[in-house]
């Protein structure tokens, strides 16, 4: 037998030692499985990483190119209707402050009238009462016209029985006037209120204000007559 043949037989007969693997021997199936598992996990990670990169790139492209977004792909009719609705919303918001200011205006809890006047300062007292009524109302302009009706020529107590749109304001005016009335006029006002209660209707603030107005108008007339008598 030639030496080369002997070497071949010795190689086939001896243990198989792949180069680079310690211990030698034939390849193990478990090693192949581990290798395949590791390679499979690596492939999955690479695929997942590739998907993340592609998603990030697509997001960046959408940011750079607004036409690629779904909203920009809508028809011109839809975009115009959206702009119209946006304009309508802005218009409503612009009107909201005025509406809010109207709703915030509230009637005061009290009508703060000055103390019961003397004949010489009745005119100033009447002006202050009118200002107090206007200030207490949530609708000052209408309240001004409402209280000025008291001082019309030939105005009657019966005509002021209806409070109109200012029922609560009328009641607050009556309460304030009752608290400041003094002397003989206070007794007259109490009698009037009792008579109104018997008829089934409450006395009104404007009625009381008219009674005060007539009381001082009469006092001024009597004073003028008395002054003229003294001069004569």
Describe the structure.
With 232 residues, this protein is mainly alpha-helical. It folds into three domains: 47 residues; 31 residues; 113 residues, no CATH class. Helix content is 68%, strand content 0%. Helix 4 runs antiparallel to helix 5. The C terminus is likely disordered.
- Average pLDDT metric: 75
Query: By helix and strand content, what is the structural category?
Result: mainly alpha
Distance between the termini: 180 Å
What fraction of the residues are assigned to beta strands by DSSP? under 5%
Shape: rod-shaped
Write down how many β-strands occur, each being a DSSP E stretch of 2 or more residues: 0
List the domain count as a whole number.
Answer: 3
Number of helices: 8
* Oligomer designation: single chain
Residue windows where pLDDT falls under 50 for at least 5 positions: 222-232
| Major pleated sheet | none
**What sequence of helices (H) and strands (E) makes up the elements?**
HHHHHHHH
Query: Helical content, roughly?
Result: 55-70%
Taking Cα atoms only, what radius of gyration do you get, to the nearest Å? 51 Å
């Amino acid at each position: 037998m030639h030496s080369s043949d002997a070497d071949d037989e010795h190689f086939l007969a001896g243990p198989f030692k792949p180069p680079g693997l310690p211990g030698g021997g034939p390849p193990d199936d478990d090693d192949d499985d581990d290798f395949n598992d590791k390679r499979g996990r690596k492939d999955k990670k690479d695929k997942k990483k590739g998907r993340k990169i592609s998603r990030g790139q697509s997001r960046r492209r959408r940011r750079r190119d607004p036409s690629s977004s779904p909203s920009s792909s809508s028809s011109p009719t839809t975009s115009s209707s959206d702009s119209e609705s946006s304009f309508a919303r802005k218009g409503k918001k612009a009107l909201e402050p005025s509406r809010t200011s109207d709703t915030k205006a509230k009637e005061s809890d009290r009508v703060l009238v000055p103390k019961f006047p003397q004949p010489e300062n009745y005119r100033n007292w009447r002006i202050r009462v009118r200002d107090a009524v206007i200030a207490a109302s949530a609708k000052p302009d209408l309240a001004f016209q409402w209280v000025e009706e008291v001082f019309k020529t030939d105005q009657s107590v019966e005509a002021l029985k209806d409070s109109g749109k200012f029922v609560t304001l009328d009641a607050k005016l009556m309460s304030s006037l009752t608290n400041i009335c003094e002397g003989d006029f206070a007794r007259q006002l109490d009698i009037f209120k009792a008579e109104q209660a018997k008829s089934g209707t409450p006395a009104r603030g404007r009625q009381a204000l008219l009674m005060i107005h007539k009381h001082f108008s009469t006092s001024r007339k009597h004073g003028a007559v008395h002054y003229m008598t003294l001069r004569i």
